[in-house]
Structures are given as C-alpha cells and as structure tokens.
Amino acid sequence: MQYKRILLKLSGEALMGERQYGIDPKRLAEYAEEIKEVIDKEIEVAIVIGGGNIFRGLAGASNGMDRVQGDHMGMLATVINGLALQSALEESGVQTRLQSAIQINEVAEPFIRRRAMRHLEKGRVVIFGGGTGNPYFTTDSAAVLRAIEIEADVILKGTRVDGIYTSDPEKDKNATKFDTITFKDVLTKGLKVMDTTAFTLSQENELPIVVFDMNKKGNLLKLLSGENIGTVVDN
Asked: Between the chain's N and C termini, which has fewer beta carbons within 10 Å?
C-alpha cells in the first residue's frame, strides 16, 4: 500500500447523494464499504467531514446571520454527519470513534491527539467532528490541521470530480486534468483545491494532497494501491 496512515476529507454535500439536502443512507453505506476495504488492508484511517449538507456558516452570514453563530451551527452539522458515518461504519463491522473539537461529551469524545493516534494504531477509524473548534476556519483547515497532528502521510480529498483540471470540467469540455502538480503551480494558476488557509498550512508542512472522485466505486482502494487515480499536489 502506498500510504500507512491517511486523512480522508469528505464534503458534507457528498453525503446528500441524489438528495437536495440532508443525508442519503445509500451513499453512507457505499462510503462505509469503501472505507472498510481500506481498513482490511491495515491502513489507518482518520476522517473529517464538512457540514454543508445541513448548514454552512458563510451562507448563513451572507443572509444576515451572525458569522460566529453560523459557524457554530456548521460545527454541530459536522458532528451530526460524523455520527451518521460512525453508525454506517459500525454497521459494516468497523470499529469507529468520533472525536469533537467542541465538547459534546454525551455523543463524542473530546479531541485528544494521543488518544486519536492510539485509536488509529488499534485499527479504529477516527472521525474528527466540530471543525477546528473555532469560527472563521473551514473543515478544509480542520482536515489539514488534524492530518498534521496525527502525522498522516497524506490528505485524500474525496470529491465528485476525478482530480484537478485547468478549469471546471463540468463547464468547460476542453479542460485538461493534471496527474501531478506542485503547490506553487496551484497558487500561480489560481486553481481551487482547498481554501487558502488550509492549502498554505499543507504546503508549509509538506503534506501532500490527493484530489480524487470518491463516488466511483473502488477508487479509494485503487488510489492507495498505487494506481494513477486523481491528482497529487506536492512540493
């Protein structure tokens, strides 16, 4: 396997499946099976999920809501998604722990770095909810921060697109895909991979990012097996 310990970043919207909002149980079950295949190969998996399928703080702020309140609502949404994924994974027979950056002791452990790493060493999936625990930071930033803290080998950003393109492939049929690209070139070309804070943090800590299509069955395991799936961003 190409990596020993990974951090998988999923968007909240990915959990909607074909729905307009909320969580699609079918999509959850598919993700759980994909992750189980990876765990069976003895790869350590941590996960960060967004909350955009339930609430997005920035969108709330643009509609007149206080930004800090909106971001706190978004953090709670990520915990809801984390609980849903935890349930799906345990249904598939995968031991899972949910850790939250905001204290919700009845439903999730507090985020404790050493405990998280011990869970991973024991073969448990660790889901990090609650973002960074601070407003004004996205779940992309939370993903990079947690990946650095747990000493992950790579961040795998699962999207509905199979990599990074010269322009939006859903709008431009002439867009071409990069197999590999440097952090510097992403910034120079103005390509959207993660928000700037998260991307810079990843660059400074020399933590590679792989953008790939999580919705295509088998892609996660193929990527970890060394197949040319998605786009690798590295120094």
From this structure: C
